[in-house]
Design a protein that fits this description.
mainly alpha, 80% helix
């Protein structure tokens, strides 16, 4: 691997961690950098899941008190998330690279649009309510299936689903979202590792950069407007979408 490619992965990892800490959407950067590094799209997608995983853990620990207060809701949604995430990851493994490559521009276009509409999809804010409803269970299953298969924009989708299904305070819903993101990513990673599609060298390069970026993101959050960070993510998503459509 060339020095310039290592530098690209380090920069993309750092910016991904920082953007996730401020606005979310870092998956666009890691997936894009890994594809530019020459990884097949399925491997790039799976390796991106590994790279993003530590951030899910730290975000969940920060909300541990909220999770403890709503653990009954969390248990039900964790079970559904395991099922959906496993099905999504197994579906990805069942595809070959050309088939997945044909889907990538459409997935990126949908995820970019979802991210751009994120401010309009904010969950309802109110008193905390149980999220164990048929609508919430079904919505979370399909969100987990998408997350296990691709993942970009999953957090925004999950907040919208949980908010529309039951409502609750933002921190209550965000805590559940972070916990469920760990579950979905973990089950997908186990399946991807078993399928032998993780690019470990690239992952090892990006992981510390993502961690440093997440730390720096706290500093950036106090100084850089979230709107500016969101525009960067949308621009990257749009550029990747155009690239995959034009080179398909």
């Amino acid at each position: 691997m060339s020095i310039s490619m290592i530098a690209l992965l380090l920069v993309a990892g750092f910016l991904s961690g920082a953007i996730n800490a401020v606005a979310g959407g870092g998956t666009f950067l890691t997936f894009g950098a890994l594809t530019l590094a020459g990884l097949p799209p399925i491997s790039a997608n799976a390796t991106s899941s590994i790279v993003q995983f530590p951030g899910y853990i730290t975000s969940t620990l920060a909300y541990w008190q909220e999770i403890r207060r709503s653990w009954k809701s969390a248990v039900a949604l964790v079970v559904v998330s395991i099922m959906g995430g496993a099905m999504g990851a197994l579906t990805l493994l069942a595809l070959d690279n050309p088939s997945f490559r044909a889907l990538v521009p459409w997935l990126l276009a949908g995820a970019t649009t979802l991210f751009a509409l994120g401010p309009l999809l904010k969950p309802k804010v109110g008193s905390e309510q149980p999220v164990i409803t048929p609508k919430g269970i079904a919505g979370q299953f399909f969100t987990a299936l998408y997350g296990g298969f691709f993942g970009a924009g999953m957090g925004i989708m999950m907040l919208a689903v949980l908010g529309l299904a039951a409502g609750g305070s933002y921190h209550h819903l965000n805590a559940l979202k972070n916990l469920l993101a760990i579950v979905i990513a973990a089950i997908a990673i186990i399946i991807f590792v078993g399928g032998g599609i993780i690019a470990w060298t690239q992952a090892a390069i990006m992981l510390p950069a993502v961690a440093l970026g997440g730390y720096a993101g706290v500093w950036m959050a106090r100084r850089v407007p979230q709107t500016a960070m969101r525009l960067v993510v949308i621009a990257v998503g749009a550029a990747l979408t155009a690239y995959y459509f034009l080179t398909g």
